[in-house]
Amino acid sequence: MHVLLDSLAMIALCYVMGFLFQGFYRQFNARLQRRWGPSIWQNLYDNMKFLLKSETLIHGPMFFFGPMIIAAGAITTLLFVPFLKDSDWLQGVSTHGNLILIIYLLVVGPLGNALAVGSSGNPFGVMGVTRGLTRLMGLEVPFFLGLALVMLQHETTSVHAIMAAQDGIAHWNLITNPIAFAVILLPFIASQNASPFDVVGAPVEVYAGPRVEFGGRLLGVLMTQNMMMTIAKLVLVVDLFLGGASNVLELIAKAFALFLLTTAISAAFPRLKTEQTVDFFWKVPLGLAVLGVVLNVWLI
Amino acid sequence: MYHKSDCEGFQCEQRMLEANLGQDDAGLGVVERLIGWLRQRSLFVLAYGTGCGAIEMRPLMTSRFDAERFGIIGAATPRQADVLVISGYLAVKTLKRVIRSYEQMQEPKYVIALGSCTINGGMYWDSYNTIKCLDHYIPVDMYINGCMPRPEALIEGFTALQERIRRGEPGGYQRYRDNIDWYKANQRRVFGDNMPPAYTYDWYSEGAT
Fold this sequence. Notes:
Chain A: Pfam families: NADHdh. Chain A: It is found in: Membrane. The complex is a heterodimer of chains A (300) and B (209). Chain A is mainly alpha-helical and 300 residues long. Chain A has helices at 2-32, 42-51, 61-80, 99-105, 108-120, 123-154, 159-165, 173-176, 178-191, 203-206, 217-241, 248-268, 274-299. Chain A is globular, with a radius of gyration of 19 Å. Chain B has a single domain (30-201), classed as 3-Layer(aba) Sandwich (Rossmann fold), CATH 3.40.50. The A-B interface holds A 26, 30, 33-39, 42, 45-46, 48-49, 52-57, 203, 207-208, 211-216, 219 and B 35, 38-39, 41-42, 44, 62-64, 66, 68-69, 71, 73, 76-82, 104-108, 203, 208-209.
């Protein structure tokens, strides 16, 4: 019973934080472009409107299961990420999982996307998925090496143990292991589909990419899972590098600080091409990651 | 009405036109009102740049007039769009594509027609190749007249449409669904043999939701 209530609370918190953060993102971008921008609730309105629309498309069963797989992947991922430390609440099922499981669950989304879009047969969608999987090839190796660096440093795969080890700002992994944070930051931005690496949904290039065939309720489901996934990943990085949080306000403040950093980076840089993205990931973050592994394993 | 202290000339006419826009529909329940309110706050626009009106959509969407503050934002594909904006005259060839795009949009969907060309053909009234009255082929929810209407006029039209959505008035898509035979007969008259295939609209007659 406790787990059920707790999971529902986590999903609700994730959803609310998701639309508020993305609403902030839209307003932030608008102010940078010297306009007023939408209200901060805009993403809630958009999402609700899509969930209340009709859905008349028929592309076979996989087209409907795809978004469900993606949404299930997002919800499972967020349930395995502990939101708070030293608390009974907002833990989900995280005590039964570890970082390696979360790494596996992060790939469910792109996989479901590929399945759904493949069955729709839209060339723009397929193009978007191809770009997405190419980018995944680039971003995953440094991202997982960065996570491995954190696991190496603490010699555990448990997110709880890593959080517990970071008591006080001087023991944050951001301070003690800055190389791992630098390695993870750019792949993290890419996995949030933010600006320099937003090759997947590139609006004027591939017309919304994988989402091109989705309209109505399925698009609503996709938007919902996207907002939740954004927050789940933010909270994971907060847990691993910013020492986690002991109450909800601290969690929101830390996640927001991280979000502000990634938003500022993505607002400053224009979109790269797909091959430039992969080149970049295989050179800079991966080089840093290899350096970090060498430092961690042989020198320290 | 024409008190000089209150309003003058066209301002009074404008006020008379807008007088009924503010009324609340009493027949709606709380849930319908909430749904209507959520819907009117978020309009994804598919701007079909057929004529010169396309040039007025750019300033509307960009920093100067910033339609995003009303929740109006461009959609990438017809599937994700709520509002189809027909900006100007329509050649018969273009009309076919417009109808195809319109039928792919998910309900509730609305059509905004810009400029006099969509009302009576405008300066193309005697052209052999353009249609005169758009409303005969797809249901138009809101006309914004002018040649061309400025972005301010577009914002006015969009907010009037939002007001109608909020009050839960039946949109044009219901008219299209109810009178599909009449619309299809009109379309067949201009297309002749080039009619889009029946599978593109047969779910309308089946009453699919």
